[in-house]
Design goal:
With 151 residues, the chain is an alpha/beta fold. Helix content is 44%, strand content 26%. The chain has helices spanning 14-27, 47-52, 69-82, 102-115, 132-149, and strands at residues 3-9, 35-41, 55-63, 66-67, 90-97, 118-119, 124-127. The longest helix has 18 residues, at 132-149. Pfam families: FMN_red (PF03358).
Amino acid sequence: MTKKLLIVHHTPSPHTQAMFEAVLSGATDPEIEGVEVIRRAALTLSPADMLQADGYLLGTPANLGYMSGALKHAFDVCYYPCLDATRGRPFGLYLHGNEGTEGAERAVDAITTGLGWVKAAENVVVSGKPSKDDLESCWNLGATVAAQLMG
């Protein structure tokens, strides 16, 4: 049975786009079998998208020390419909910020803890232009969460 990995992202800048592409590349590595990767821009996410997924990758810039309004909106729309139905599902988070990402990490941790999701890998947090190592960490994040869904 194919598992579904949902990437919920807000990619307003070239830096977040590069991180998104690296996460996607890791999640869709040919060695990972039986996992369908679905991408949704945070502002288009529906509760059905969230409910149908078996795991999640979340990507956002840190704006003024908080997650993007787009990712917050996605959680607002999906939180109560998903509250009991998605407990125990794995997730990963990648964040880009020019300064002060702690508030964004704390907010996502609080929401995912409330949902009962399980952190599948360490958060990837990048400040400024993503380096080769940063993009490799993003690739590893995508691959790690996808691999955990394999049969």
